[in-house]
Design brief:
This protein is of the alpha/beta class. It has helices at 15-25, 31-43, 80-83, 91-102, 140-156, 168-180, 213-217, 223-238, and strands spanning 61-62, 68-72, 123-127, 162-166, 197-200, 203-208. It has a 6-stranded mixed beta sheet.
Length: 239
Amino acid sequence: MARRSGARRAPRPPAALARLCDTIVHCRRCPRLVLYRERIATEKRHAYRNARYWGRPVPGFGDPDARLVVIGLAPAAHGGNRTGRMFTGDRSGDWLYGALHRFGFANQATSTDRTDGLTLRDVYVTAAARCAPPDNTPTRDELAACRPFLVDELRLLRRVRVVIALGRIAFDAFWAVRGAAGHAVPRPRPPFAHAAACRLDGLTVLASYHPSQRNTQTGMLTATMFDAVFAAARQCVDQ
């Protein structure tokens, strides 16, 4: 089948980024998370009883030349922990990839599995923690154990101009990573708030409520609110 005019092939990740992804996938640093992700992969949710779960840490996903990075919390137990790709196979992913598609960062609005044809353009999607945590809550020690992965990702993604942090934990993780990488962190540090923006030298940091079902079903986060963050990101990237 011929490609549509103007379509771009998914870029091959540079060797260093590919090696980092492989290191992440084989990580067993946090015993609690290893036990949980593997138990969930064995027990499964009834709706996915015939699915083969990933059950391992989930690496980042996207364009290695990205100017936008989206940082989430962690893979969902029956989302990324099942499919092996960030924000794939759950409602949060429907919100995220739908927004990325509307603003020209993705070739499609749906995200069901690793072979669904989704391609990201100028954006890389990652998370503060790489294993699905019980109650969607990694501990401080678990976040600290994962932090070097995010440090290395941001170091290897050399064209980044905008970061979107989805939720307070991702927002806090970004500032911790920035400090760990030896970059200046504003004092006082910017507070978390939806649509808050902080401009550093050559970098814009945007905050958003996480598109969790709790937030979207209660109206704490609406589609209009979510789109406003990605519209701001699009504008910053294109400047």
